[in-house]
Amino acid sequence: MTRWWWLGLMLCVGLPATVRAQAVNTIDPARSAMTFVATQMGVPAEGAFKRFTAKIDFDPAKLAASQARIEVELDSFDSGVAEVDTEVKTKGWFNTAQFPTATFVSSALKALGANRYEVAGKLTIKGRTRDVTAPFTVRQDGRAMVFEGAFTLRRLDYGIGEGPWSDTDTVANAVQIRFKLTGTGKK
Amino acid sequence: MHRPYAATAILLHWLVAVLILCGAVLGLYMVGLPLSPAKLKLYSWHKWIGVSIFLLAVVRAAWRLTHGAPRMPEATPPWQRGAAATSHLLLYVLIIAIPLSGWLMSSALGVKTVYFGALPLPDLLAKDKALGDQLKLVHQGLNLTLAVVVAIHVAAALRHHFVDRDDVLHRMLPFVRPRPRG
After folding, report:
1. Cα–Cα distance between B31 and B51 in angstroms, integer?
2. Contact (CB<8Å) B114/A171
3. How far apart are CA A35 and CA B182, in angstroms?
């Protein structure tokens, strides 16, 4: 009978965490996307990062306690052009051998009204950390929450594309990052 | 004395000729380059030249259809008239088809064409690598055909000028009047 007593205790301790309203812990990769739009010679070049993880604790009623941590595997860069995908892994670009991950850690959340929010945080790529803010929307998809938004970063802030590639007339400095993160819906 | 081509026709002819030469030289040079900012620039310039040729080709075709062309010298044998008409038609078809094939190829390979970096052209094809590779062969094949037809076109013009000693070349040259008939 001792085992049942332990189970009861675990349930009591675990329950408050599991019933907390709309907390999302991990994301469902199949229903999430991390895409980018760079510009070369005025031509928008779209692509995606195929592998990333996110841990999001979001409660509209407790924004101060809400937080997110997103990690993107830079090796999973996919522009659809093999020559480009190989190039961006090199030292002058992402240097993925030394810096395999881009990390975003939220620091503050702000409600903008009508299911719109703004997250501020620190984005670290290639060992360089910069402040970023991104507006996003939140909607419910079944039991899962869907976070969708976009922001623009300056690639040279992170040393993405050094040497001859730092010429912004060819590859623009501004790169738009779009994200769609769908929670697993597990509570 | 034969009527020369109109100034508009002469201007369009040489403009397209110069653009074709630039586009071809750029195209042959750029494909072998390793990925670099210079390569991206050259590809864009090549595409802008191609779009320009296409637009000028459409204007030229419209001009030709509405204005016609000067008549051939009386002495021209029928086979030469036939050859001239065929090669001219082929040239018109090619200067329209080659930029089109490049544009379609670019779309299929997933790279949009943005004229002068400012005017985006619609993608007529969805991204499809295999189709893009096939269109690359079409683009190359059409260009090879163009090279052959242009070679014949130039050879014929030079033959008229230096062998037949008529005014066929003269009537397409800017700034000169047709040579007096001897």
Report:
1. 18
2. no
3. 73
Residue A177, min C-alpha distance to chain B (Å): 19
- Total number of domains in chain A: 1
For residue B127, list chain A residues with Cβ-Cβ distance below 8 A: 80
For residue B146, give every residue at least 6 positions away whose Cβ sits within 8 Å of its Cβ, in sequence order, or none.
Answer: B20, B91, B94, B95, B98
Q: Quick check: is A78 in a domain?
A: yes
Tell me the chain B residues in contact with residue A83 when contact means C-beta distances shorter than 8 Å.
35
pLDDT digits (tens, 9 = 90+) for A27-78: 999 999 999 999 999 999 999 999 999 999 998 888 999 999 999 999 999 9
Residue B33, chain A, CB below 8 Å: the answer is no
- With respect to residue A6, please indicate whether it lies within any of the assigned structural domains: no
pLDDT < 70 stretches in chain B: 1-2, 177-182
Res A20: pLDDT? 44
The CA distance from A40 to A43, in Å, is 5
Greatest Cα pair distance, chain B, in angstroms, is 61
Q: Compute the C-alpha angle A73/A186/A184, nearest 5°.
A: 30
Angle at A139 between CA A138 and CA A144, to 5 degrees: 110
Residue A172 three-state SS: coil
pLDDT at A119 over 50: yes
Q: Is B81 helix (H, G, I), strand (E, B) or coil?
A: helix
Element at A153 (helix H, strand E): strand A144-154
Q: Is residue A12 part of a domain?
A: no
Domain with A88 in it: what CATH number? Answer: 2.40.128.110
Global confidence as pTM: 0.85
Tokens representing residue A120 in the block: 């501020």
Largest Cα separation within chain A, whole Å, is 74
CA-nearest residue of chain B to A167? B37
Distance CA A73, CA A68 (A): 17
Domain that holds residue A62: 23-182
Task: Tell me the C-alpha distance between B37 and A34, whole Å.
Answer: 26
CA distance A123 to A133: 9
Q: Within a domain: residue A18?
A: no
Q: Is residue B154 part of a domain?
A: yes
Dist CA B4 CA B177 (whole Å) = 8
The alpha carbon of residue B87 is apart from the nearest alpha carbon of chain A, in Å, by 36
